[in-house]
Amino acid sequence: MIETMMPSSSIDFSVALMIISICALIDILSPGVLGVTGYLLLTQPNQLPSRLIVFIVIVQLGYFITGLLLYFGGETLLKLIEQISEFDFINWFYTVSGAILVVISFIKPSENLIRRITSWIPQQSTIRGMVVLGIIIFLTEFVTALPYFYSISLMNHLAMKPASSVLIMIGYNIVMVLPSLLLLGINILFKEKLQSFLNKIRSKLNELPITSILGAVGLVGVVFFNIGIRGILN
Length: 234
Known about the structure:
mainly alpha
């Protein structure tokens, strides 16, 4: 499928770089990485740098190694990735998860159940936990990174020099997590102001009635369900 979308092998390097840059911008919003970044910002601001850096390194190391294998391994790995993506695992995951969230939004839990669910949410994470979470996020999302695989195939198609291709891959991986890196930088430079803002968000979340939270859960479920169904139908 990816091979049929390749441009002419005679296109200029700057044009190829522009195409790859557009692909990187498409891949920039990873729900898993952004979700973990938001979780760490709200629950563990003091440990954010060490935890987030470890998490990002593990996730992007997975992408980088996969990119190298694809670049030097050629069509065999690409076909394997395309076969995995055809299983619709991610689409079914979104569909089922969305349906479950919608059902949950209609259930009014007891105070005891709310306390139990809250107690299950970890308020502290370890470096080892971030490593495991990074591996899980990578394995869950990598089959959806088709723009990344297209960019690597494009570099192969244009017979770019290995050194240039590896540098482009490194840059691409940095762009993929740029929002999280920017949030990390803001947290380091403007920690007091950011924490003051986040404290307001935490207090508002604590003050929200359970019905409002369930409504938000139901909305997320509808979005997930829509994404999954559209992917399956396509």
